[in-house]
Amino acid sequence: MSHHIRWLVFILLLSAFALWVSLPDTQSVVLDGNNDGEADFRLNIQQSLGLDLVGGLRVLLKADLPAGSYTAEDLQETANNVSRRVNALGVTEPTIQVLQGSGRILVELPGVTDPEQAIEAIQQTALLEFVDFSGVGNVQQYQGRKVITTEQVIIQDQRTSVAAAATVDPSAEATAEPTPQEEVALPNPNTNQPFETVITGSGLQAAAAELSQDGSWNIRFELTPEGGQIFGPFTAANIGQPMAIVLDGVVLSAPTIQAELPTGGVITGNFTESEAKTLALQLRSGALPIPLSVESNERVGATLGQESVNRSIRAGVIGVLVVLTFMLVYYRVPGIAADLALLVFIVLNMAIFKLVPVTLTLPAIVGFLISIGTAVDGNILIFERIKEELRGGKDLDTALVSGFDRAWNSIRDSNLSTIIICAILFLFGQTPGASVVSGFAVTLALGLIINLFTAIIVTRTFLHILVALLHQPLVERKWLLGV
Fold this sequence. Notes:
Shape: elongated
Number of strands: 13
Distance between the termini: 24 Å
CATH topology of the largest domain: Multidrug efflux transporter AcrB transmembrane fold
Number of domains: 3
Order of helices and strands: HEEHEHEEHEHEEEHEEEHEHHHHHH
CATH class of the largest domain: Mainly Alpha
């Protein structure tokens, strides 16, 4: 009995914490162990709502290259990079969809608070280059200026040749000259030659914004093994020489190499916090294979409308009350334990939705409601097993133990098989344009996992406590057990 009492205390404490987290006013968890007024631990809590519930931003992006100069695979890879950037902005469950045959990408961002920052982070190509500035005097004159590099020359030549091949008239004479392409950057005024690119952003493994001790924002980066094999020897051979850090042709900074950097280093510059985080995001997600321009953007309201949301909530509450009433009427005392376990199940789900956080869209809510059905189904399996044991002549305590033990295999196997299906749906949902499928899979899988805890641990604890308190009446009146 003491074992069940310990579980009861743990369940009550966990439920109280989950209920507090679920409250609309709870925005963060702060722990101050030293009582010095500074938080030793802070966990921000937010409830994320999807575009159909809260509205957001819709952006239509257009490829900035002539039709035929890129493939459908290039456009799809660009959409994938856009998706990675959007998710790193803190926007969950965005809709990124390639509009086939139009060279356009549709992006829908739920609950975006800074549209300008989101558009800038999505649109920029983020071609990062570490450029050899050895022998260049007065490097500060290049700060904020465009320069031309060997990597940009290669990219420009490729685009020029592809665009010329895509736009040339087959009936034209062979001697016709192609249309000159616009220069993307200014040449090196000292040597009239492009600066040498050492490595590009493809050699980066990770990048993160950080606040330095002098209060300035920098970007710390780590190199891939391949990038380190190039960058390490170069920095070792050029200690004391300047090296330019160039983003999309513009010199961010030109620091002096102080030591060999085989694994990574720090990008310095006059960054604000927002600029540093945006740049780090772009570097992590990679350069866009195709440059994009914003054709249109608009704020959109919730597609369901507040009245529809209120009706959905009302329908959900009524459904839960009907289930609670059915369990109580049909199973009596075990039904009380099942109802308490179901309430714990709902509170735990709501808390996890805020802690993860899970973006609640209409499909995600459907997944949660289905998981409530699986939670009830688990309790029904257990109680029917207990009733079979009692009808077979076993005493109450033995029937309880046997009922839970024999029902566990069925509950485990059914939940695990559905969780596997959720994993498959989640993987399919990573395709741009299908992210709502991921929301459904996530909420359903979380509910199934929590159900394994509530059906076996929570229901068992509550039922054993109730049986201990009402043992004699239950032995004498088996109808109280639904038999």
